[in-house]
Amino acid sequence: MTRAEGIHPTALVDPAARIHPTARVGAFSIVGAEVALGADAEVGHHVVLEGRVEIAPRAKVGHGSVLGGKPQDLKFRDGTPSGVRIGTDTVIREYVTIHRATHPDGWTEIGEGCLVMAMSHIAHDCRVGDGVILINYSGITGHCEIGERATIGGLTGIVPFTRVGAFAYVGGLSKVTQDVPPFLLAEGSPAVARGVNVVGLRRAGMPPAERRVIQDAYRILYRSGLAPQGAVERIRRELPPIPPLTLLLEFIAGARRGICGAPSGEPGDVPAAPESEPV
Predict the structure, then answer these.
(1) Which of 46, 99, 121, 124 does the annotation list as catalytic?
(2) Where do runs of H (alpha helix) occur along the chain?
(3) Is 142 a catalytic residue?
(4) Which of 36, 119, 226, 272 could tie 18 with a disulfide, CB 3.0–4.6 Å?
């Protein structure tokens, strides 16, 4: 094929790679045979794209990043056909590493409109939802799932097979060893639930009445003294079944590792929020 105008002369692009005419590839980058770049996708300088890598339109990959590398998993076998998918309008900053999946025809998937800040790592078989923000030096280990519009703080590590729910916020320097339910703030080593991500929910457009229901659910879940199953039953009895609450309860039901606990020394049962409390 003829070299597209947007490909730097020093880039090494395999002739079999599928490069949209409006995509751009920077200096000294390497693009393998199974790579596909969508319209207006941008690949910076000194980037390596190897194996099956699909980069959707308008996505950007920062200088020095490596996408599609072999998983750091002793069970992985060379030649396994797997890959990495990057969603539309996602921005991957400098020196990020994202490894391909471990099983045949599997994908490590990053959703649309995400921001993966510099030096972060996303391991094999992860699923990152739309609008997720991973702050610098985040370490997302294998088989993790990050729900839509969640934020993972800088220098945070998440153990394998762990989930972070939609619209959750995990503070920096945290060690996440259990699932973080949707809509919550979690922080610490190990990470514990600190409250409801009210600011994030406001920005997402959740109405005040729904935010209050989520706050009431948080109080029952973490401050009633009940075990999670008992708290869930009480939530179902006492709170209206709005869609966000249903999402929260379904997430808890699917938690194989359990959900992150409350800080030590939490008080007992707390009454419903007064009308004056910010939501």
Answers:
(1) 124
(2) 198-203, 208-223, 228-238, 243-253
(3) yes
(4) 36
pLDDT for 277 equals 56
What pLDDT score was predicted for residue 191?
A: 98
Q: Cα(first)–Cα(last) distance of the chain, in Å?
A: 58
Give the chain's length: 279
The string over 110-135, giving b where at least 16 C-beta atoms fall within 10 Å of a residue's C-beta and e elsewhere, is: bbbbbbbbbbbbbbbbbbbbbbbbbb
pTM of the shown model: 0.94
The whole-angstrom separation of Cα 260 and Cα 165 is 11
Q: Which residues in the chain show pLDDT less than 70? A: 1-3, 266-277
Question: From edge to edge, which strands make up the β-sheet containing 97-99?
Answer: 12-13, 30-31, 48-49, 66-69, 97-99, 121-122, 139-140, 157-158, 175-176
Name the catalytic one among 46, 51, 121, 125.
Answer: 125
6-37 pLDDT per residue, tens: 999 999 999 999 999 999 999 999 999 999 99
pLDDT tens-digit map of 167-203: 999 999 999 999 999 999 999 999 999 999 999 999 9
Cα dihedral across residues 176, 179, 184, 190: positive or negative: negative
CA distances from 121 to 54, 95, 156, 181 (A): 18, 9, 11, 22
| Catalytic status, residue 46 | no
List 62, 68, 139, 142, catalytic entry: 142
Burial class for 21, CB neighbours closer than 10 Å (0-12, 13-18, 19+): exposed
Annotation says 124 is catalytic? yes
What is the CATH code of the structural domain delimited by 12-143?
2.160.10.10
Radius of gyration of the chain (CA): 21
